[in-house]
Specification:
The chain is of the alpha/beta class. The chain has four domains: 233 residues, 2-enoyl-CoA Hydratase, Chain A, domain 1; 179 residues, Rossmann fold, CATH 3.40.50; 107 residues, N-(1-d-carboxylethyl)-l-norvaline Dehydrogenase, domain 2; 107 residues, N-(1-d-carboxylethyl)-l-norvaline Dehydrogenase, domain 2 (Orthogonal Bundle), CATH 1.10.1040.10. It has 28 helices and 17 strands. Helix 11 packs across helix 24 and helix 17 packs antiparallel against helix 23. The two termini are 55 Å apart. The chain binds ligand L4473FGL. Ligand L4473FGL binds next to strand 3 and helix 11. One of its GO terms (biological process) is fatty acid beta-oxidation. InterPro entries: 3-OHacyl-CoA_DH_CS, 3-OHacyl-CoA_DH_NAD-bd, 3HC_DH_C, 6-PGluconate_DH-like_C_sf, ClpP/crotonase-like_dom_sf, Enoyl-CoA_hyd/isom_CS, Enoyl-CoA_hydra/iso, NAD(P)-bd_dom_sf. It catalyses: (2E)-hexadecenedioyl-CoA + H2O = (3S)-hydroxyhexadecanedioyl-CoA; (3S)-hydroxyhexadecanedioyl-CoA + NAD(+) = 3-oxohexadecanedioyl-CoA + NADH + H(+); a (3E)-enoyl-CoA = a 4-saturated (2E)-enoyl-CoA; a 4-saturated-(3S)-3-hydroxyacyl-CoA = a (3E)-enoyl-CoA + H2O. It is found in: Peroxisome.
Length: 702
């Protein structure tokens, strides 16, 4: 019997075939396997929102477990979610050594509700089951064997091994093989265990409800008889199944896959653009970003040339990169083979024969221009030239080279060997092959690549600007960094805007604002103005920087720290009196600001810019923006990303609140609702997956 995902037809197939096999006296035992080397990836997620037809999973698994002939699961490829629950209903499990098993329902906002929360703890004990169910992590066959999830691991044909095994156990009694009849092994420190698990889950979940429900369900397995535990599992699942969080998480699952199917406004697409193989790559500039990129490249198995012109920096970088590779290999239980993949040089000529270069020098246009001119002269014909700029004009850099079609942005996020997001930035001259190659390389590096157009800040940083601006204005109007951060952290961000600013360094934005001519000199002594070119401007960040308050690295920023480099932010009385004086100097009267206003002002301003980005064609669709925010900016996944969230709040509501705030702050253009948002509301606020139609119509009319 073979199946991929258990849709209605597949479930019906299993029920019918197992029934036939059990009723046939010639059949002594049964082996369940999958098709095309995959046991089962679980339920079809697309079925969830629909009227689910076909036989339900729970009675089907019960019937298999109750069978009077041995049923063996032959697990190849994946046994995930309902697929693993089905295998747990079988009397024996044999997995191929390359198979992966797991209960990833929690990542879809659900719990394993086909008996997974009740059988797994009975089989492998409460602590291990809690780990697998609350994290949703997939385990390799070797770990599954060690945990006791599977009985055997096969190196060659799993089906052959399972058939042989099934015949060998045909006459054996099955009572001891039905997991639902096992007592749940109860640890002596039962209460402490569950309290600890709940605390850990609440801390990591940032407001997600599914992990909490998973702990509650496993607790039921440990405290109630099987059938009562199943009732509890069902009850908890009922709450999760229709929740907005489950919708958001399932949207993220598909959005993550949708962004790999990129398209450009000129019609170039992922499926018609062939990437060129990259065997050897180079990184130019070994500061923090360059080092992380070199590590990520080497870990893919590529040969890497790492160039840093300053001798001292080169020596330091060499040590740091080796350390990162060694630690990475140790964590994965491997030898650091990638160490030998990197060669270092202080001479840019060393990149002459590479297939692709990633420039990661200091964020300065003049410097980057010079590097691109050099690269264009030094590299062999056809080498792709990529820049890791976070905001600078990729087209302008391309224009410095002989072949602008080979230039794209590859915007990594710090630390580059850890963070999953990669913005691949194309300009009007970038060739589809350059985009395809950068996207493919990103995938090889384990990144989630999103192809975006070229504009100041691209997608992520462009949307961050109005968000940060609102946070500054809120301080002027009466809020504190603590209040703003608390509201955003309760929403689900790992860090609020001010704690994040202290971590990344206030000087970063200061340098950008200076470059844009926004910072007035001698602020501390004079009366800084709060308008730039007719727009409201807050000089608060500039004032702190003038005093050397750059955040964690100087021990002072929006908060205070025990010492420079320390990470624990403490409220700073100095800042509070500074803020009061500032308000008094500007005749600003502090008013009470609540969490709702913080969220509406910061998030709707960010979302509004997201609509502008869609209108400008910088992002192909809302999924691209959402994946950028979930993977690069800490947007809570269970809220689906900013554009999905706007849909959940209701586009009409977002529009109404933006109109309200723009009326109150007419000198803040970011609060002026963008025309795409108005148009979507006028078209009846279609669901997020239908926005592209409205955007396409808008573009065709321009
Ligand atoms: C009420 C009953 C509840 C039951 C509980 C469950 O079973 S919930 C579902 C639990 N299962 C999962 O969460 C598995 C999700 N899938 C994966 O982890 C991976 O897709 C995979 C199975 C490991 C395969 O990975 P691979 O990298 O090889 O492929 P893709 O991820 O790119 O997927 C290929 C296409 O298949 C689509 N898809 C995958 N899984 C599902 C699914 N469970 N339901 C619906 N569709 C699924 C995926 O979207 C890809 O589609 P494209 O159109 O090609 O983009």
């Amino acid at each position: 019997m073979c199946f991929i995902l258990h849709s209605a037809a597949v479930r019906q197939g299993i029920v019918d075939t197992v029934k036939r096999a059990l009723g046939d006296p010639k059949v002594k035992s049964v082996v369940i396997c999958g098709q095309n080397g995959i046991f089962c990836g679980g339920a079809d997620i697309k079925e969830f929102g629909t009227n689910m037809s076909g036989p339900p999973l729970v009675p089907m698994i019960h019937a298999i477990e109750a069978a009077n002939k041995p049923v063996v699961a032959a697990i190849e490829g994946s046994a995930l979610g309902g697929g693993l629950e089905l295998a747990l209903g079988c009397h024996y499990r044999i997995a191929h050594s390359k198979a992966r098993l797991g209960l990833p329902e929690v990542s879809l906002g659900l719990l394993p509700a086909a008996g997974g929360t009740q059988r797994l703890p009975r089989l492998i004990g409460v602590p291990a089951a809690l780990d697998l169910i609350t994290t949703g992590r997939h385990v390799a066959a070797a770990e599954a064997l060690q945990l006791g999830v599977v009985d055997r691991v096969a190196e060659h044909s799993t089906v052959d091994a399972a058939v042989k095994f099934a015949l060998s156990v045909a006459a054996k009694p099955l009572d001891a093989r039905r997991i639902s009849t096992y007592p749940c092994p109860c640890p002596s420190d039962f209460d402490a265990l569950f309290e600890g698990a709940m605390q850990k889950v609440r801390q990591n979940a940032r407001g997600a409800i599914a992990p909490v429900a998973c702990v509650q369900a496993v607790r039921a397995a440990a405290t109630r008889p099987y059938l009562q535990g199943m009732e509890r599992e069902k009850e908890l699942m009922a709450t999760l199944f229709t929740s907005g969080q489950a919708r958001a998480l399932q949207y993220c699952f598909f959005a993550q896959r949708a962004v790999s199917k990129w398209s450009m406004p000129n019609g170039a697409r992922w499926d018609t653009s062939k990437p060129r193989p990259v065997h050897k790559a180079a990184v130019i500039g070994l500061g923090t970003m360059g080092r992380g990129i070199a590590v990520a490249l080497a870990q893919t198995g590529l040969s890497v040339v790492a160039v840093e012109t300053q001798e001292k920096q080169l020596m330091e970088a060499k040590q740091a990169v080796s350390g990162m590779l060694e630690r990475g290999a140790k964590r994965r239980g491997l030898t650091p083979a990638a160490l030998h993949k990197i060669s270092y040089s202080h001479d840019i000529q060393a990149v002459a024969d590479v297939d692709l270069v990633i420039e990661a020098v200091f964020e300065d246009m003049a410097l980057k221009k010079k590097v691109f001119q050099q690269l264009s002269a030094v590299c062999k014909p056809g080498t792709f030239l990529c820049t890791n700029t976070s905001a600078l004009d990729v087209d302008h850099l391309a224009s410095q080279t002989r072949n602008p079609e080979l230039v794209v942005g590859m915007h990594f996020f710090a630390p580059a060997h850890v963070m999953k997001l990669l913005e691949v930035v194309y300009g009007p001259q970038s060739s589809p092959q350059a985009v395809a190659t950068a996207m493919q390389l990103g995938k090889k590096m384990g990144k989630v690549g999103v192809a975006v157009g070229n504009c100041r800040g691209f997608v992520g940083n462009r949307m961050l600007k109005p968000y940060i601006e609102q946070a500054f204005f809120l301080l002027e109007e009466g809020a504190t960094p603590e209040l703003v951060d608390r509201a955003l952290e309760e929403f689900g961000f790992p860090m609020g805007v001010f704690r994040m600013s202290d971590l990344s360094g206030l000087d970063v934005g200061w340098r950008v604002r200076k470059g844009d001519g926004l910072v007035e000199s001698g602020l501390a002594s004079g009366q800084p103005t709060r308008l730039r070119e007719g727009r409201r401007y807050s000089p608060l960040g500039d004032l702190l920087c003038e005093q050397g308050r750059f955040g964690q690295k100087t021990g002072r920023g929006w908060y205070q720290y025990d010492q420079p480099g320390s990470r624990v932010a403490r409220s700073d009385p100095w800042f509070h009196s500074f803020l009061e004086e500032y308000r008094a100097r500007h005749g600003l009267v502090a008013r009470r600001i609540d969490h709702q206003e913080v969220l509406e002002r910061c998030l709707y301003a960010l979302i509004n810019e997201g609509f502008r980005i869609l209108e400008d064609g910088i992002a192909a669709g809302p999924e691209d923006i959402d994946i950028i925010y979930v993977f690069g900016y800490g947007w809570p996944r269970h809220r689906g990303g900013p554009m999905f969230y706007a849909g959940m709040v209701g586009l009409a509501r977002v529009l109404e609140r933006l109109e309200h705030y723009h009326q109150a702050h007419p000198d803040v253009p970011y609060l002026q609702p963008c025309s795409l948002l108005r148009r979507l509301v006028a078209s009846g606020s279609p669901p997020v997956h239908r926005w592209r139609e409205v955007i396409k119509k808008l573009h065709s009319q321009l």
